[in-house]
Amino acid sequence: MLRRLTAVFLVAVGAVIFALSALADRPTRIPFEGLTFSIVVTDVCAFPINVDITVSGTETDYVDESGALTRIFVHEVEQDTYTANGRTGTHRRPGRVLCRALSVM
Question: What are the domain boundaries of the chain?
Answer without folding.
Answer: 25-100
